[in-house]
Design goal:
homotetramer, about 130 residues, mainly alpha, Arc Repressor Mutant, subunit A, 2 domains, 5 helices, 2 strands, about 5% strand, DNA-binding
Chain lengths: ~130, ~130, ~130, ~130
DNA sequence: GTGGTCTAGACCACG
DNA sequence: GTGGTCTAGACCACA
């Protein structure tokens, strides 16, 4: 399904969380689609099931998936509640990154171009595919 | 000067690095300006001087400041080479964030507006303020 | 594994960095091989674990090793980009040393011989030993 | 006469030592030539006379100059005594540098070329000019 | 078990 | 006064 970087400083469960979050955001994993069972994924990635479980728990905590005891884990159709808080945090991150890119010598035009490219790419992929 | 979040998952020295990096990027700390002495900042933040020093050393490694033993720590005037790698990483971060903002319901127009605001703000703030 | 000179002007962690760097350069420590654990090495050298960690972190910054929290520290397989700057610095050092050797009475022939010996030794030692 | 890098991590007296040593090695300062008086040099470089004095003391200790109380400091005509020890140290340094250059991707041919260029340059400059 | 963070406190070299 | 080194010892997260 995907690979983990064993050499990365970031813990494996965190890498898992980010990877799966990206799959959901980019609509590769559709709403209500079932995620691979913990043991299955653990087998494929040859890592400890506990690590998978920790990642799933984290994803559930962050509102990206929901778990049904005895059935499995599924992609949450719409993100829950307080998006504004999360959006605000993202806006800050975005501002920080833009500032740093300018500091490192990127031109404003480059940045705008980059953003627009990303926007059109995501717009194409997001609507019910 | 600024505050640290003692509860945060990211270590105090890392928070310090980010805070100071931001002050440099946003030209609040000018080139060759002296940073607060290790012990002084440690006193103000009521944390251990070693922690400050760890942050300063990290900033030095990343090319944002230089420390002269016996004299003090200062803002490095121009960023040292090799920005392309860092810029590439930032582009990826930026793409990821834009995707997530769209996923959480932000409109493309909002995002463009936000970026442009940031660009003009930084452009105004960077040259000799 | 090796010894440190407690009287030396250069700090212990710096000596450690140089020693380990040499072991990596001379292929004694192979790519992806695990370095001794921080506490283990600290025990063997009877110095503080923090000192070892400082050395390891420095080696990581310089691109010679990578550390994975909870797993260990390992030799980085290939050196990361940007070698030109480092190479330039080494060329200068080399020129300086040759000049000084001449000044101290070494003959040009001796120096050439010495270099060639080193070149053939390293060439023999580098590929899969 | 020359400049010091105030931003450098290496202490000013050490920079002075290296600079003057280079001038002697490259025969810019001739044997028995008098070095600038401590106060004069301190004035030119706008640094503390104590720093100059420390550098001169160090140079004397290393055998590059001699001081005549009340008269001044002079370039020592021939280096004193045990060159073999110093030469041995330099050979080791040289070997280390060659190894590292190879490790960083320099070709043996490049290194030989570099050495020969340095040798002919120094040979031209050394004999009693 | 691993690396990592943080503290408290001592000592050193530099200018 | 400055930054830097080192120790001793506690605690945490990860796998």
């Amino acid at each position: 399904m995907f690979e983990l970087d064993l050499r990365s400083r970031s813990p494996m469960y965190e890498q898992l969380v980010e990877k799966i979050k990206d799959l959901i955001i980019n609509n590769v994993l559709k709403p209500d689609e079932q995620l691979p069972a913990v043991r299955v994924l653990a087998g494929e990635l040859t890592i400890n099931p506990n690590t998978i479980q920790k990642a799933y728990r984290e994803l559930e905590h962050r509102g990206y998936i929901y778990s049904v005891p005895g059935k499995g884990s599924f992609v949450r159709p719409a993100v829950t509640g307080d998006n504004t808080a999360r959006l605000h945090a993202l806006e800050n991150e975005l501002s920080r990154i833009v500032s740093e890119m300018l500091f490192l010598g990127a031109s404003p035009a480059d940045i705008i171009t980059l953003i627009k490219a990303q926007l059109s790419k995501d717009e194409g992929g997001k609507p019910d595919d």
